[in-house]
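Journal club side-thread
Mid-discussion, someone asked how the predicted structure for our own chain would compare to the paper's figures. Pasting it here so we can look after the session.
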Amino acid sequence: MAGDLKTPKDYRLVNGIYLSPADQDELDHTLSELIGWNCIQRRNLAMLYAIKNGADIIALVDDDNIPLDNWGTRVYIGEEVEVTEFLCQDQAFDPIGAAGELNLWHRGFPLELIATREYSQKQKTTLKATIQANFWNGDPDIDAICRMEHRPSVTFDGRNFPFTSNFKSSIFRLLSFSIRWEDGRYLGSLLRASQRSCSNFW
């Protein structure tokens, strides 16, 4: 866990490793300076620490999300997994609709494409999972307009998972909520430090 300048000076983490601002600066001063302070991107230093210490899997959970009791029991990273593959022909793929919530759409999904979302074309396929993005119940990470209009409280149907999209050039936005990925994808996936409102993965 990477602290920040707002973190209490006497903070201690039970069952984990806490990196104080001084620890982070010692770990990589240049990266620390580039990221700056008082922003979520400080977690890059925690990821870097995990990489340097040989972590097999890195999982990220934002502090406004509470993992369910079964969180971490279905880790597909490194495994051959049978998934539903949606054959997306549009410029962007909305995973919220693919998960069965057709009245909602993901934050960042282009509004002009909502009416043309198409999920009927799909097939079963087997792939090796290198990135896993879990969903979250309750108030999901949806578009602000969608949230104001629907004020949803969602419980996603686990039978709709896991899934992927075949259209590699489409935008499939991977959230920092409960993301896991294996070695080899770490360094290209660090959180962007310059865009406060786009701090997730694209």
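Post-session note: Residues 56-198 form one domain.
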